[in-house]
Structure formats: structure tokens, C-alpha cells
Amino acid sequence: MEERSTQLVAMKIASESAPAWRGYLAGILITGGCTAIAAVMSFWFATTNLAMVYLLGVVLAAARYDRRASIVAAVFGTLAFDFFFIPPIFSFAISDTEYLLTAVVLLTVGLVISSLAAGLRLQARVATEREHRTAALYAMTRELAVATSLAEIARCAGAHIAHVFDAHGLLLLKRPGESLLCLGNYPASIESVDTSIADWVISQKTSAGFGTNTLPAADALYLPLNGTHGIVGVLTVHSENRAPLLDAQHRHFLEIFANQIAVAVERELLRVQAHDSAFAAQNERLRNSLLSSISHDLRTPLAVMGGSASSLLQEDGALPAGPQRQLVEAIDQEARRMTRVINNILDMTRLESGPVQLDLQWYPLEEILGAVLARLKEHLDPRSVCIDIPKDFPMLYVDGVLFETVLMNLLENAGKYTPADARIDVCAAERAGGIQIRVMDNGPGIPKGSEKLIFEKFHRVHADDAVAGVGLGLAICSSIVEAHGGRIWTESRPEGGAIFCVTLPSTASPNERSRRQAA
Predict the structure, then answer these.
(1) Could you point out which of 61, 179, 271, 306 has its C-alpha 20 to 30 Å from the C-alpha of 281?
(2) At what angle do helices 97-146 and 67-85 cross, to 10 degrees?
(3) Whole-number Cα distances in Å, 87 to 47, 83, 362
(4) Spatial contact of 365 and 387, defined as CB atoms under 8 Å apart
């Protein structure tokens, strides 16, 4: 790979170097300057020492110009040294073998210096080009690593292709059973991409278009995006200046860009696929949980209702008033239980269908809590419910119907998990920046590590007991409280049981604002 890179840079230097005559002219001019300097120095130095001046000229030509200039300086310097300074002067004849050896050494060393200097210049150019390529590749790879969507990957790839290659890049991605997905934008001056060429590139897994042996008359270059699990799409590159696309080094570097883009695209596709699979699995689990819970919580009330109704029909009015009333009450109780289950499911569906539209109004907490206790009277009896609300407790700016659902689910949940002689406490207080309502019971409590899980849909801490429920009540509470800008959590009571805390942001009611202004 490194040898290929060196060869590519050498070809680029040869193609970008100045015209040949400039190198030859530079070598001749440097030789003339060295001759003038040597002529002045000849009054004080021996003839053999003057050869060093021409060697200095060869080094100057090799360092400042190119190989052509240094070779010309070495050859013409040797001839000038022979013609002007080796006896007989003004002649190329050499009478003394000592001077002949000096001339040969001068020519040999000059050629060696020119070759070494040219090699060093090439290596320096290779190192510089490699550094630029590495920096550009690193910059793009770093941005691709944090890209979170295919559109962002296309934008990042297009920006870096435009910066490095002065070209426009477009991604055409495969979609099972569908047409290619086009990401990125070409300028209006460029015609639309030929998707038939892209389809051919995907099928053949090789490049096509401008600069290749396949469809070279195309307006753009089409490169396959080869991922680890197969081709994921095509990178199309269009440039107003097509010369860089014909350059071997640029093509090789562009292929490296395409490989990095393919890795990023494949990673994002796999991430989306994993997310979809996890989402589908979660939906399947929720569906199974819902069916299991509903089948249990609806089958039991239906069985009770069916049995009671059958008894009433079979006796045909022969039952005494007492047993008959008990059967009617059982039907009514189970019907209400079914209604609560269905209402919870409908509430959860409504809360998850989109942003909740709150009908915010001012309510006293006592009014909402009184309505809830009236509806849950039979469910909570014979448990005692103790309420502690300060006299100066502010009014709540809430959706009355939804917040009533929150308190109803919390109290109903407390009634389910506490014995018949238990006590349920409801306390309210003002806190810094808000108000807090706590519902406390002395039931079995919340196991450690389940404090957050109990607010998830269909999660039940005591799933193996005989307590009925779908596992939606607390999830509904959490959604409603968060829609009001509040927070709900649970704590354990030191003496046993659970505490459910609800906080809401405090907002002064119109009456409170009037009292404050009057004060």
C-alpha cells in the first residue's frame, strides 16, 4: 500500500511539475553563476577546490528545483570546470590525469546528489500528501462516528467530498423490494442521477461511470458502498473539473472515502434494524401481557356475573329478597370492576396516542379527593382513610378529570394491597417550588429495585397473588402527572408499607394573587 502511494505521488509530481525547459534553464543559469564565482575564487584557491563551487550549485538545483535542473547543473558544471579552469583552459582537453579524476568525481558526485535530493523531495511530498489524506479521512470518520441518521451521514459525506475533492457526492442506498433511496442534493445545474447505472453497480459490485471502462460517457462516477455484510448502496461523485477523477491517486483516496461511508451506513442500518426488532419484541411482550391481564381480569367478573344472572333466572323470582339482592350486588360490583379495567386501558391508549390536551382549571384538593372517596367507598371499606390537608393549602391548577384519575388509582392501589383493618393516609403540603401529595399505606411495600419499574405498563410487583389488576394504574398516574409538569415516585415506610409521592408546580390562583396584592 505504501509503495503504491509513493508511486501515485511520484506520478502526480511529474504531472504537476513545471515545464521541462524551466528545469534545464535553471540548471544552465546556476552553472553560469557557479562559473562566475569560481572565476573570482581562482585568484586565491587551487583549481581542485573550485569543483566544490559546482557541487554546491548541484545541491542548490536539486533542493530548489527538480531532478532535471540538478542533472543539467552536474553535467554542465563538469564541462564548465573543464573548459574554464583545467589546463589547457578554454579547451575540453585534459592534460593532467589528476584533473581528469577530479572532473569524473565531480560529475559522479553531482549525479548522486541530484538523485538523492530528488528522492528526498519525493519522500517529503509523499509524507505531506499522506498527512493531508489522513487528516481529511480522520475528520470525516470522526463525524460519521457520531452521525445518528442516514440523512446526517449523507450530509457529512457530501460536505467532506466537496472539501477534499471539489466535487458533489450523493448516496443511493438499497431498500429491500423498493427503489433506491436518494440522500443528499446535487446543485440545480447538474442533471438527475442515472439510477440504472447505480443498479448495475449494485448488481456487479464494481465502479462505473466517468473515468472507468464501464459507461465512461456518464456525467458522474459511481462507486459501490461495500459493507461487511454486502453492498449497501452507491456513492455518486460529480465534479465540474473532471481531471481529479481521472487521477489515480484521487481515485484511490475516493475509494477509501467510499469504504468509510459504507461502514457508517451499514452501522446505522444495523442500529435501526436492532431498534425495530427491540420495538417489535417489546410490542409483542406488551400485547401478550395485555391479553393475559385482560383475559384474567375480565374472565373472573364475567364468570361471577354469569353465575349470578343464571341463578336469578333459574329461581325465577323464588329466591328470598336477601339472597336475590346479594346476587344483584355481585353483578353490579363485577360490572364496575370491568368498567375500571376498560377505562384504564382506554386512558392509557389516549395518553400514548399523542400530546395530552389538558383542560386546566382551579380546583380545591378537598373537592377532588372527596369525589374520589365517594366513588371508592365500597372498595375501601372497612379501611379508614385519614386526610391531612392544611387550611391554607393552595388550589390546584389541574385537569380535574385526569387528576381525579390519579388519586383514584393511587387509593384503589392502596386498598388492594392492605388488609381490611388497615389505615390509609393522604397528606398534602407545600414544598419549595411546588406542592406535594402523599398517599401512604401499611401494605407489603415495594421491593427494593422495583421503585421505577412499577410505573411501567403491565408491570405488577405482586404478580402471583390473587389481587386483580392489569398493571396500568400507576403507568396512567405517571403519564398524567408528567403531562402536568410534575413528578411521581414511591418510597418505603420505615414501619412497613409504601408511600406514593406526587409533586406539582405551584401556581398562585386568582384569589391568592388578589390577597397578596391587598397585603
Answers:
(1) 179
(2) 160
(3) 10, 8, 118
(4) no
Q: How far is the C-alpha of 379 from the C-alpha of 468, rounded, in Å?
A: 13
Instruction: Supply 68's cell numbers.
Output: 532535471
Per-residue confidence (pLDDT) for residue 184, from 0 to 100:
78
User: CA-CA distance, 414 to 426, in Å (whole number)?
Assistant: 11
CB 213 within 8 A of CB 184: no
Q: Average pLDDT of 415-442? A: 87
Element (H, E) at 388: strand 384-388
Most confident of 89-103, 131-145, 316-330: 131-145
Given pLDDT bands bounded at 50, 70 and 90, which one contains residue 8?
A: very low
Q: CA geometry: angle at 129 spanning 128 and 132, to 5°?
A: 85
Give 282-296 pLDDT, tens digit per residue: 667 656 655 665 565
| Separation CA 55–CA 57 (nearest Å) | 5
Taking CA atoms, 326 is separated from 231, 300, 311, 331, in Å, by 72, 17, 11, 9
- List the strands of the sheet with 384-388, edge to edge: 384-388, 423-431, 434-440, 498-505, 487-492
Residue pair 85/42 in contact by the 8 Å Cβ criterion: yes
**What is the SS3 string spanning 117-172?**
HHHHHHHHHHHHHHHHHHHHHHHHHHHHHHCCCHHHHHHHHHHHHHHHHCCEEEEE
Please state the φ and ψ torsions of residue 188, each to the nearest 5 degrees: -60, -25
Angle at 187 between CA 185 and CA 189, to 5 degrees: 145
* 412 has a pLDDT exceeding 50: yes
Instruction: Give percent of the chain with pLDDT exceeding 70.
Output: 76
| b/e sequence 290-325, b meaning 16+ C-beta within 10 Å | beebeeebbeebeebbeebeeebeeeeeeeeeeebe
Under the banding of pLDDT at 50, 70 and 90, the label for residue 189 is: very low
d(CA 434, CA 505): 4
The residue behind cell 462505473 is: 208
| Contact predicate 477/456, CB 8 Å | no
Out of 55-69, 140-154, 247-261, 289-303, pick the least confident: 289-303
* pLDDT recorded at residue 224: 92
Asked whether 75 and 28 are in contact (CB, 8 A), the reply is no
Which amino acid appears at position 235 of this protein?
Answer: L
pLDDT at position 148 is 86
Angle at CA of residue 380, ends 375 and 381, nearest 5°: 110
Angle between helix 473-483 and helix 400-416 axes, rounded to 10 deg: 150
Pairing of strands 498-505, 434-440: antiparallel
User: What mean pLDDT, rounded, does the chain reach?
Assistant: 77
Residue 215 has, within 13 A of its CA and on its CB side, a CA count of: 16
Q: How far is CA 295 from CA 302, 342, 419, in A?
A: 10, 12, 26
Closest C-alpha to 351, from 452, 469, 470, 481: 481
State the average pLDDT over residues 218-240: 88
Question: Which helix (H) or strand (E) element contains residue 45?
Answer: none
